[in-house]
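User: Modeling request: complex.
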Amino acid sequence: MTYPNWLSQRAHLSGSRLALSFQETQWTFSEINDVALEYAGKLTALGVQKNTRVAILAKSSPEFVFVMYGCLHVGCEMVMLNERLARAELSYQIDDSSADYVLVDDVLKEKVTDSQLILFSRIKGTSPVPFTPQKEWKKERTISIMYTSGTTGNPKGVRQTAENHFSSAVSSALNIGISPEDVWLCVMPLFHISGFSILMRSLIYGMGVRLHDKFDASSCAAELQAGRVTHMSVVGVTLERMLDVLAADEMSVSPKFKTMLAGGGPVPVAYIQRAASYGISVLQTYGMTETSSQTTTLQPADAAQKIGSSGKPLFLYQVKIDGAEKAGDKGEILIHGPQVTPGYIGRFADRNVQEDGWLHTGDVGFLDEEGFLFVVDRRSDLIVSGGENVYPAEIEKVLLAHPAVREAGVCGAPSDEWGEVPVAFVVLNKPVETDELLVYCKEQIASYKVPKRLSIVETLPRNASNKLLRRELKAWL
Amino acid sequence: MTYPNWLSQRAHLSGSRLALSFQETQWTFSEINDVALEYAGKLTALGVQKNTRVAILAKSSPEFVFVMYGCLHVGCEMVMLNERLARAELSYQIDDSSADYVLVDDVLKEKVTDSQLILFSRIKGTSPVPFTPQKEWKKERTISIMYTSGTTGNPKGVRQTAENHFSSAVSSALNIGISPEDVWLCVMPLFHISGFSILMRSLIYGMGVRLHDKFDASSCAAELQAGRVTHMSVVGVTLERMLDVLAADEMSVSPKFKTMLAGGGPVPVAYIQRAASYGISVLQTYGMTETSSQTTTLQPADAAQKIGSSGKPLFLYQVKIDGAEKAGDKGEILIHGPQVTPGYIGRFADRNVQEDGWLHTGDVGFLDEEGFLFVVDRRSDLIVSGGENVYPAEIEKVLLAHPAVREAGVCGAPSDEWGEVPVAFVVLNKPVETDELLVYCKEQIASYKVPKRLSIVETLPRNASNKLLRRELKAWL
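Assistant: Request completed. Predicted assembly structure:
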């Protein structure tokens, strides 16, 4: 089973349509395909071939897109490296993936030492050799590999095939719709599935991507007001910062803007309501690297009465709870569908990612009577205190509801008495006594769930997608 | 590889959305799924089971949809019978398909005598037995079987799988876009791929279908004006009649209306321009039963400078010209993609429908420098009359069976009303009245296939191999 080469087909079918824009420059699908073919010729000249595994380390830029699209034409497997990782972490991934080459953005060259390193400037400066793209791509072709930690803390390289990305793009379209005029604002890292999936949708839909080199609340608010974009992917924190700018500068949002997909953990309902007041529809999603982005999505119409839910599966997907006998029973979330990775590479290559066709996510959740998914907690963050299960997200939600709290993070601390106890870190909007916050918690949750310590901090540890890293909180203890 | 059961999944994901409307009655996806489950229980009670092959003969109505959706739940293969066929033609298809049951709309009961006949009224009156739907459908499951003639004049039963229909729906969405508010006006026969594919899109997109029991230009114009529908499938003749009504009654078309897909042969550019004056975008398509509807589509923006073209392939599809070395070279049109039938049933079950993965259409065409497809000549001199395919060989076979006829040749003649109509030329063995021959035809083939004129001639034009040259018949008109 094959697909027509997505880049060639898009250039053929909608060559004059916008493919990418960055600052003041635009590329149509025809133009970006020409650039991609040129880069494919340059990469070929440098020794990169079909089925070569290349690691790529870059910051968001058109150049990064050109290199990736060139690799797509050549037929490479792309290991997407996170530019915020430390040298040792990068070394682990390059080593584990047995990457044949490491393609590195010049601004990041200090981060990697590798005999097979090729700087972006060298690619650009290389004369391309004649290159003929493949007409078809196999569905099972590995397009990208992304490392994710999971329960063990040892990052595993997740394979994402052409079919994974295609299913993901189509399922999302069947959920929220698509139109030839759509333009997706991309401020998420391109090396994460949140950003990379925007590029895949671009090729599959024939959709424009408006690329920013990083998230900046004011620049994003300006895009929303200008009506230059129709969609955007956010996490709770970035949404809140944009809402603050919109409020502070008394800005409005163009009616051309349609939908935000919110990933990386639950977005407070207060944010969704504030967004709605600007006409912005925010869809809470649940997904992961192993599912090439969203698997379930909550519609705005359901947001108010299904607070905390991640919604229902997309059309091609199924979700069930391991061992659940009835609605409300908690257990591990299992996922089935064509978006699920066929497996890992490197030292985890032998590990089965699916059992009987179902991905075991390691996350705990339940389905309510109507089939809405509630993710109770990431299993790896579960705190077990005196035999009771304590879910950090639940405590954070309570803290976040306090007007003085902007951000909250909770993790487990060792305790002689209880095994583990929850402790909290908060970032404030305005001054408040920690005792007041603890009293506030006591009023709303069982005493064993109330943080035993609460520290006020400047920032919380987050990854490049702004997802809270609870494990790093533990290192602060 | 599987899909979640489309009916169950739609009821689960968008149960409150409009699924079907007919006259003043509406059904949501939840409601229509309940009806479908009830019908599945009734059909089960009557002996219909998973993998049972049922032929269905009906006129467009909600009841017809209920029976089909019931069959989908049960897991039947549905042989879609054309209600305009003559008794002998229906018998052939029922026999060739080895249908286990024939489900017949009561208003058509005179058309079929079969021991395994079950009238719709009997289905409706049967008490359902408990029924549990399958959770998943295999991609290679045969959903529908439609008979189509070819060069030989013997209709062949074409299998259309779940993957064929899914690919077709998704490819169309990637071309024209989809939105949760879309409603497709269905006036095409549900037993044809043109109408049936609207139901498949409804389930896959979660899209509403506005069903009419037949095409009526005034009723359709009223729907367009009322803004109750966003899409519609047409053929040249129906489009022209609607335009006449819009003009005569000085009507306007709601801005909510988006797109018409035009199949069944080329639509005159004048119609497309007249439609544009009402804000209607008409997309010329090329497709066939073997490709589960459209394979190529011409965008309105290209209509003026690509007069006569059927456009470019949809995203997942490829088209090439057999033996062509450069743009403009004519040859047989070959098609590749997941929408292509895996093959035939019945007496043609052994015939390869694909060679090296490419469907040989029998149509002749060329691709221009920009890759636009031009269909020069239809397979076996196909006559398209009011959107129905009429195969000359099939009519010639009937004429040749008459003892007075030695040779017969049929071709299409232009018709203001139908686009084209069949006309016949015969060489006689012995004297006979032309009226007698026409009455003879009427007994055996659908009335739209009966020649509108019949001329007695001395000889028919043949090539050196004695093959009938139907194109030369046209010159005699």
